Amino acid sequence: MKDFCIIGSGISGSTIAHTLSKKYSLDVYDKARGAGGRSSNKKFNKNESFDHGVQYISPKSSQFKKFINNLIKKKIVKKWSGRHIFLNKDKKEDKKHIKIIGNKGNNCISKYLLKNINCIFNTELIKITNKDKIWELDFSDGTKKLYKSLILTCPFPQLRKLSKRYIKHSFINKKVEMDANITVMLVTKKTRPNISSYFFSDLILGWAAYENSKKRFKSDYDLWTLQSTYKWANKVIIKNKINKLDNTRILINKFFELTKLKRNKIVHIQNHGWKYSSNSQPLNIKSYWNKSIRLGVCADWFIGPRLESGWLSAKDLSLKIKK
Ligand SMILES: Cc1cc2nc3c(=O)[nH]c(=O)nc-3n(C[C@H](O)[C@H](O)[C@H](O)COP(=O)(O)OP(=O)(O)OC[C@H]3O[C@@H](n4cnc5c(N)ncnc54)[C@H](O)[C@@H]3O)c2cc1C
Known about the structure:
Helices cover about 25% and strands about 30% of the residues. The protein has helices spanning about 10-20, 60-75, 110-115, 155-165, 230-235, 245-260, 305-320, and strands at about 1-5, 25-30, 40-45, 50, 75-80, 85, 100, 120, 125-130, 135-140, 145-150, 180-190, 195-200, 205-210, 220-230, 265-280, 290, 295. Flavin-adenine dinucleotide (FAD) binds near residues 274 and 278.
């Protein structure tokens, strides 16, 4: 029986897995097709792709800055330069705000951290049971696995559903509301705008990234990732599956209206609804560890709405486990 089962291959799961793998045997499971969680990268074709979750990383804490600088040296991530247009009259742009992206996609960090770790994808954990201090885990493919310790990194609502009865801390009864986001991946005939991204001051459209400007591929097309505001997405996410076309049209129309870019022929569009995008109300703990039943939780939503929050939460959990 292995020491740890880690659920989730996003930044929290991959960071804790990487740290613990130096001392323990472990497996990582994810219900998605590949690593990265909300920092996933979606392919348009073999080489061209969209960062349809995390757009960029802007490290704040000295610990995380050090980690990212090391990844820059290893060529896992890089600075995203070019013209980042700030169309928000209400907020001032922070010129020191650097933008870091993955060299091949924003899931690069998770992929790098999980390089030598056994990962099982397309497999969802559906039930957890603790019997005599052993974790009995039921997965969506019908398998049952036993582990000595369990770490969960799911978004809060999913975590609560799976593990409420085993968590002996008040945070599990809190109302942690995660905002939604609607993302549209848009491919048009090429105009080659000299732009990297737009930050809007609009009730519906929040952000647009010109994927070609990340210099990962050469393309005959323009690839844009459009992300809605959280406020608008929170209102429309429930019916996004039914209203996909309408919501997509609204975001695309906003994009051309606000940027005044030439409306070239659309070649491909895809809409991705994020039900649980992020939580901007930090909790009073950074991670959770129950030593007696060996159950741990780390995730961005303990600390904040960014990828760095997930990394810090995983680091905090690894210290608790070490004690
Ligand atoms: C649209 C969008 C834009 C964003 N933009 C930015 C940005 O620009 N900068 C930034 O820093 N942050 C951004 N974020 C936030 C950032 O994505 C998150 O903070 C971070 O990725 C969270 O990482 P995590 O590992 O904690 O969670 P996740 O990445 O969500 O990882 C959890 C993983 O667990 C898996 N999982 C869940 N339940 C189960 C189960 N039962 N069985 C198996 N697997 C399961 C999921 O599939 C997922 O892969 C954005 C998020 C979204 C959605």
